[in-house]
Amino acid sequence: MELSLDDPCQLFFPGEVVMGVLRLHNIDELIGMPPIVRVNGYTIVWKTNSKCDTEEYCSFFEDQAVMNKILPENNNSTTSLNLPTEIYSSTYKFHFVLPDNLPPSYEVQFGHTRYKISANFNSNTAFTYFSVGQWVGLKKRANSVDRKTSFIPSLCICWCPVVKASFHLEQTQYLPGETVYLDAVIKNNSWDDIIYSKAFIVQNTKYVKTHHIIPIKYKRTVVEETRGLISSGHNQVWSRQPLYIPPVIPTTKKCNNPFNFFDVEYKLKIHIVMKSSKEKTLFSQRLLIGNWDDSMSCTKLNDHKKKPIQLLQFSTDDCQMSKLQNNDFKPKYVVYQTN
Asked: What whole-number distance in Å separates Cα of residue 280 and Cα of residue 8?
């Protein structure tokens, strides 16, 4: 028994129709009930420091697919399996519609939100996973940020010179696949050397357990760039330092969809470490990561999808951070390839 989806990307959005094919081997075809294909969306949170013991489980979406048996002469229809049809006894096409309020697929260290398709026939089971996205539009792109700050690395406030810094961002709203260009000047007027400075974009995840007030929090770095020594009395200049945004889940808020289980936000930070082991975050700016641009003129990709038509090409890719964590399922997200 083989189960496959028609869309090779296996990334869908709420309101879309998911279509696929179920093929049965000759040895599977026995007299009995016809095959059943079901879909299930669920969120799991594990107990602390465990990926075996489930602390919370919520099944928020269950449905049974509509099945249509294909006649033998039509069994040569194109599917993603590319296997000889003579080894199958029956082929079924199936489809189901995703509701409009589904949360996005997401993998984090302490849990995940996943979507699973299961096929059952005569005690045989086959299953596969697919990704669900959530459209997050960017409405205001040209919102530049200019900021200045200072840091006193010594307790002798009256006599100790300070570390001064200024920062500039052209915008704070981005699409995956775009590049953040950072301008910064760090002036080390202190008596201590700065060992290194680091600019990075961090992904912050929060989840509130049932009957709990304090949320679980998890941070992971999306992209980072490190610069070397800033000696006492010297400056360091960051001129349009590029920080590429990989395929990641867009900014997600529970207030935007009551079915969202995880709050996900992004911040751009610049951090310095002094020779005296003192550390300081000089700059922190919240970024909005979306997956389609409402400020551009858009066209329908199909009845439910939209994509920008100016300088951007729609594609999908696995979440790189999930790959690094060796998860058994890699969610897919929208990423744009700029010209």
From this structure: 46
Which CATH number fits the domain that encloses residue 172? 2.60.40.640
Answer whether residue 179 is part of any domain. yes
Same domain as 35, residue 102: yes
Two structure tokens written together for 238: 């960051």
Tell whether 111 is covered by a domain.
Answer: yes
In the structure encoding, which two tokens stand for residue 272, read together? 């310095």
Q: How many domains does the chain have?
A: 2
Among 318, 207, 206, 257, CA closest to 104: 257
Q: Are residues 107 and 152 in the same domain?
A: no
User: Looking at the whole model, is its pTM more than 0.85?
Assistant: no
- Is residue 203 a contact partner of residue 219, using CB atoms and an 8 Å limit? yes
Give the contacts of 157 (CB within 8 A, at least 6 positions apart): none
Spell out the per-residue pLDDT of the chain, length 339, in tens.
889 999 888 899 999 999 999 988 765 455 567 899 999 999 998 887 666 677 888 899 999 999 998 876 555 544 445 555 455 678 899 999 999 889 999 998 888 999 999 999 888 899 999 999 988 888 877 789 999 998 887 655 555 678 999 999 999 999 999 999 999 999 999 888 999 999 999 999 999 877 677 888 999 999 999 999 999 999 999 999 999 999 999 999 887 777 788 999 999 999 999 998 889 999 999 999 998 877 654 443 343 344 433 445 567 777 766 666 656 788 888 888 765
